[in-house]
Amino acid sequence: MIAAGADHIKTCASGGFQWEHEKLTHEDYTLEELHVLVAQSHSRDKRVHVHAHAQPGVGNAIEAGCDVILHGALMDDAALEGIAAKGLWYMPTLHITSEKAREGKNWPAYMTERMKAAQPIHCAGVAKAHEMGIKIVTGSDGGPGAIINERRLLVDCGLSPMDALVAATRGTAEVLGILDRTGTLEKGKRADLFVVNGDPMRDITMLSSKDSIFLVMKDGVIERTGDFDPNKTGKSV
Question: Is the per-residue pLDDT at 105 higher than 60?
Answer without folding.
Answer: yes
